[in-house]
From TrEMBL:
Residues 56-232 form the Nephrocystin 3-like N-terminal domain. The lineage of its organism: Eukaryota, Fungi, Dikarya, Ascomycota, Pezizomycotina. Gene3D superfamilies: P-loop containing nucleotide triphosphate hydrolases. This is Nephrocystin 3-like N-terminal domain-containing protein. Residues 472-492 have a biased composition (Polar residues). Keywords: Repeat. It comes from the Eukaryota. Pfam families: NPHP3_N. Residues 472-503, 672-691 are annotated as: Disordered. It comes from Mytilinidion resinicola.
């Protein structure tokens, strides 16, 4: 074989060196991306792009205020009102999230805003705040992590930008394993210096640390070559420094009802034509002139148009009803009237269907921790006081949610059931809905209702035996297993039984893995029911004026916007949990399985704070003799269980932490609790052995 000449050797070395450098650069980018740990920002955007109607939103792209913002020179001595910030405000349901996608696409277009000014590249990044995803899409940190990661992708082949960023991270960042908020903002600041940058943030009214976010936006725009567009409700209050932006008319754009009139009309025209072609109006001929009148009913709210379409196509309406709804002038005008019209239609269903619909609303509105799809499916099947059967599970779940609720709830971009819009929950919680069975106005009753579901699940649907497979094998019993736990932390709030459930990527402890079978796959509501029934019950009692007598509880209840002391009465709905909890307390095997599960989930159960709340309720319903008598027996049972639990924590903390199933064995029995906990005897085929 002929030897390579020196020139060929040099070319090979250069090629190898280039490959090595590219690999090293790619690894560096991946390390920074992992360090930033951004939430998903693409899925919501992609869903809006798929769902939006063709040609909508062009009126905004032609707006002179938007045009002035997008094409203005980024460098120079112009005031910040010209250089940086544009706030776009519109009422709930206007279509701001869809407008965000249209704006992002416009800014990313090859002939975008800087095409005629500066031919070199420009960067675009965006983020949607979503109140229903508090763990990932509701904080300023999450927003800046997302845009920092997008800018990192834009500049990953820019050697100068990557070198400067890597040097700063190594020498000047906080040095933490996870970046601080200031670290993330500095990453954005470094990257925007390398090309003109546009940042778009939607739903800023749903950001829970809004002041921090808006202050960071102002600082960024006032010192860097960056433009930021904000979309939100008119209720947003901007910090004082924004007065330096000049007159609000220069940088705040309030969108009026008429501006998307043509978009709404085009949408309704195409949808109503489609309905007519499918025969949904029977033999009736739709008057073409009705479209304009129906469009006016929307009052500039695109959400109204989409819900109106779903309402008309609902199987709950007969063809003549659809036709009459369409042609009755000013019928269901405005979002509130449409919501009430849908709720009125839902009341015509049978009792079981109405119960499921109401339960969907309750679980979506008041979970302690958002339920997984499987857990919600199970929760909706539970009927308090009886075992859950296969026949009680909803078919085609979760796709059926939209049909069941007539469009008031549906699936988000991840396929998880959610309210169609934040305003749906607001309306259900308002006093306008108290006449409907689906009302969420009384939050105390809602938590009582959910507590009874959780307790019933533990009493009737969970095996009454040791739960951990390896320990069961040691006991020669049947083999099941347990899954990962939520992390819970103590809180000072008296209403939460001493605990408040929380979860994050950093907080979830390591999963307990057992062989063969994942217990939580078979019982998806177990973790939630185990950890959250005391929290639901304590919140119900704390929110009730009947029990909110101490200053801290009263203050907490008084600040709940959906409760009214003057009209409050104790009803059967508030006390539904009493009989369910009574059944649960009488079944020592079920109680012991709950206690074992609680220890597995790293939260030794504590009922101490429930007792005084129950006693106050008992005093307030003394005139209701039957209810008071049953509640009195339940209080005695809870006190007995409380004392037994306190004894476990005092005398067996270490052993039960290491091996929760010891509660079923003689090793945990002591003088104070020897008669309370049952002894599991695997040799009697699941019977409880004698002591």
């Amino acid at each position: 074989m002929a030897a390579l000449n020196p020139d060929q050797l040099d070319e090979n070395r250069i090629a190898e060196e280039l490959i090595r450098q590219r690999r090293s650069a790619a690894q560096q980018v991946e390390r920074i991306r992992a360090w930033l740990s951004a939430p998903d920002w693409k899925t919501s955007y992609e869903q809006t792009v798929r769902r939006r109607c063709e040609c909508t939103g062009r009126w905004f792209l032609a707006d002179r205020r938007y045009q002035a913002w997008r094409t203005a020179q980024l460098r120079g001595k112009e005031p910040i009102s010209v250089r940086g910030i544009l706030a776009v405000e519109a009422k709930p349901g206007f279509g701001k999230t869809f407008l965000t996608g249209i704006i992002v696409d416009d800014l990313k277009a090859p002939d975008g805003p800087l095409h005629h000014v500066r031919p070199e590249k420009h960067a675009v990044a965006f983020f949607h705040f979503v109140a229903r995803n508090p763990d990932t899409h509701r904080s300023s940190m999450q927003a800046f992590r997302a845009v920092a990661t997008q800018l990192l992708e834009t500049h990953q082949n820019d050697r100068d930008a990557m070198h400067q960023l890597a040097f700063w991270i190594e020498k000047e960042s906080s040095g933490q394993q996870q970046p601080s908020f200031d670290d993330v903002v500095c990453v954005v600041r470094i990257l925007v210096r390398h090309c003109p940058t546009f940042l778009v943030f939607d739903g800023i009214d749903e950001c829970y640390d809004n002041e921090v976010f808006l202050a960071a936006v102002y600082d960024l725009c006032s010192s860097e070559e960056c433009k930021i567009l904000l979309l939100g409700r008119p209720s947003i209050s901007f910090p004082q420094e924004y007065q330096n932006c000049g007159s609000p008319s220069n940088w705040r754009v309030s969108l009026s009802d008429h501006e998307n009139f043509e978009d709404i009309g085009g949408f309704l025209h195409s949808r109503i034509e489609s309905m007519a072609s499918r025969g949904l109006f029977g033999d009736q001929i739709v008057d073409p002139t009705v479209i304009e009148e129906v469009t006016r009913r929307a009052d500039g709210v695109f959400l109204w148009a989409t819900l109106f379409e779903q309402f008309l196509t609902s199987a709950a309406l007969a063809p003549q009803e659809r036709y009459d709804t369409l042609h009755r002038q000013n019928h269901l005008r405005g979002l509130g009237a449409l919501y009430n019209g849908i709720l009125h239609t839902l009341t015509r269903r049978n009792e079981r269907e109405k119960t499921i619909t109401a339960d969907i609303f309750r679980w979506l509105a008041h979970p302690i921790k958002p339920l997984s799809i499987e857990a919600l499916h199970t929760a909706l099947a539970v009927i308090p006081g009886q075992p859950t059967t296969e026949a009680q599970y909803l078919p085609n779940f979760p796709k059926c949610v939209s049909e069941i609720t007539c469009g008031l709830a549906g699936l988000d971009s991840y396929g998880t059931p959610v309210f169609t819009h934040r305003s749906v929950k607001d309306h259900l919680q308002s006093n306008q809905c108290v006449v409907f069975d689906f009302s969420l106005f009384d939050e105390s009753a809602m938590h009582a209702h959910l507590a009874s579901r959780c307790i019933s699940y533990l009493a009737h649907d969970i095996p009454k035996q040791p739960l951990e497979a390896s320990e069961l094998q040691q006991l020669r019993g049947p083999s099941t297993s347990s899954g990962a736990s939520l992390r819970t932390v103590q809180t000072e709030r008296s209403g939460d039984s001493g605990f408040y459930s929380q979860s994050s990527d950093e907080d979830v402890p390591m999963e307990i893995i057992t062989d063969k079978k994942d217990f939580e796959t078979a019982f998806p509501l177990l973790r939630y029911a185990v950890l959250c029934w005391p929290v639901h019950l304590s919140r119900s009692l704390t929110l009730s004026p009947a029990t909110a007598q101490n200053s801290q509880s009263s203050q907490y209840a008084a600040h709940q916007p959906h409760n009214t002391f003057s009209t409050f009465t104790i009803t059967e709905f508030h006390l539904g949990w009493v009989s369910v909890l009574s059944q649960f307390l009488l079944d020592r095997l079920a109680v012991t399985a709950w206690v074992e599960s609680s220890w597995r989930y790293r939260l030794p159960p504590n009922l101490s704070r429930l007792v005084p709340l129950m006693e106050r309720l008992h005093t307030s319903i003394a005139s209701q003799k039957n209810e008071a008598r049953e509640l009195g027996w339940v209080i005695l049972g809870v006190k007995e269980l409380r004392d037994a639990l306190n004894e476990l924590r005092s005398n067996h903390l270490a052993s039960l932490t290491a091996k929760p199933s010891l509660i079923w064995q003689r090793g945990t029995q002591s003088k104070g609790s020897q008669s309370y906990w049952p002894l599991w005897n695997p040799h009697t085929n699941g019977q409880v052995g004698s002591r």
